[in-house]
Design a protein that fits this description.
Shape: globular
Low-confidence stretches: none
CATH architecture of the largest domain: 3-Layer(aba) Sandwich
Bound molecules: S-adenosylmethionine
Number of strands: 14
Largest sheet: 8 strands, mixed
Structural class: alpha/beta
Order of helices and strands: HEHHHEHEHEEHEHEHHEEEEEHEE
Number of domains: 2
CATH superfamily of the largest domain: Vaccinia Virus protein VP39
CATH topology of the largest domain: Rossmann fold
Mean pLDDT: 95
Strand content: 15-25%
Length: about 325
């Protein structure tokens, strides 16, 4: 066996061991919990692309409005006196929105390397194929893995100023304490003068928010349930998906929009040799999608040693892409 294949197999085994221990640890919690970063297998990636196209899921429409119609303002915010930079995107997904900015920079002849980071190798293949066809002159180094492990890799490869993109609802998939910790860690790993372009979904009419995650077609429900299917396949488990139901809540005071799965019966689930017991109506905490006030955003930037340079909103002022600089 060649050594590259050896390394790939070892990495795969480690990743699978981490997945197993995260799942078992989470299901041992009270309330039970699964980590939403594991939503994104091949099927999860496809369902998320369907979510982005749902009429109720305003987040993508709003941020697309910014990236399509305010591309020059975005580009001007990061070009900063023509100091050379590389562009790192955390949780890039299929780069649906960032592709407008990338195309603008390439058309302007700006010399930079794009480094998309994602935990899903599948979506990085989709992204690479798309750019090979649509933007062949884009220099691209894709990095598969967790945010900070891959950011360390990216910062060791790039010798230039860093501009980091963190778009969509990604920062919202952490509660306020976790996002505070995340942004502090991010500023610590970057250097003074580096930039972060970060998207925040703003607090708005609570019905609009709840509808975005409680769609009539049940696509968000299938996105959540797909994680049980993934656990069955990859960890030799026997979840009966028909005995779990998606439940969504939004608390307009805290801004936390939360997805749960409800066990519809008292039941036992096997994950390898481990047995996990569920009571009827017991919950699994699946994902938070945190909504922010302007004050929350200012406080988060200040607490994590960033200075806000610019704020670019969509035409409805429902979503903001905020440009931060490490102080
Ligand atoms: C909600 S999607 C958003 C994609 C894109 N940023 C957008 O706005 O359209 C989240 C993406 O982040 C990736 N992701 C989630 N958690 C991650 C983690 N801990 N490390 C790296 N990527 C992660 C997922 O695989 C997925 O592609």
């Amino acid at each position: 066996m060649n050594s590259q294949l050896d390394t790939e197999l070892q990495t795969e085994t480690v990743t699978m061991d981490v997945f197993r221990s995260d799942v078992l640890e989470g299901l041992n919690n009270s309330p039970k919990k699964l980590f939403s970063k594991y939503f994104y297998d091949k099927t999860g990636d496809k369902i998320f692309q369907q979510i982005m196209n749902m009429p109720e899921y305003y987040l993508t429409h709003c941020e697309l409005d910014i990236f399509k119609n305010k591309t020059k303002e975005l580009a001007d915010s990061i070009l900063s006196n023509d100091i050379p930079f590389d562009l790192i995107e955390l949780g890039a997904g299929d780069a649906m929105k960032s592709s407008y900015l990338l195309k603008h920079l390439v058309d302007k002849g700006v010399d930079f390397t794009y480094m998309p980071i994602d935990i899903s190798g599948n979506i990085l293949s989709v992204l690479n194929e798309k750019f090979r066809d649509e933007l062949p002159s884009l220099k691209i180094i894709s990095l598969e893995g967790d945010y900070f492990d891959m950011l360390d890799k990216a910062t060791s490869i790039s010798k230039r100023r860093k501009v980091v993109l963190f778009l969509g609802g990604n920062i919202g998939n952490m509660d306020l304490e976790e996002s505070n910790h995340f942004c502090r860690e991010l500023s610590r790993k970057l250097s003074p003068g580096d930039l972060l372009l970060i998207g925040f979904d703003l607090k708005k009419n609570p019905h609009t928010i709840l509808n975005a995650y409680n769609d009539a077609a049940g696509i968000t429900a299938s996105f959540n349930l797909n994680l049980l299917v993934r656990i069955n396949r990859e960890l030799n488990a026997d979840f009966d998906v028909s005995r779990f139901q998606h439940y969504q809540t939004y608390d307009p005071v805290s801004g936390a929009c939360k997805s749960y799965l409800v066990s519809l019966a008292k039941q036992h689930v096997h994950i390898g040799s481990t047995v996990v017991k569920f009571e009827e109506n017991e919950l699994i905490d699946m994902e938070v999608s945190q909504k922010f006030s302007q004050e929350d955003i200012s406080k988060l930037a200040k607490d994590s040693s960033f200075h806000i340079l610019n704020e670019i909103k969509d035409s409805k002022s429902w979503f903001v892409d905020s440009v931060w600089q490490v102080v």
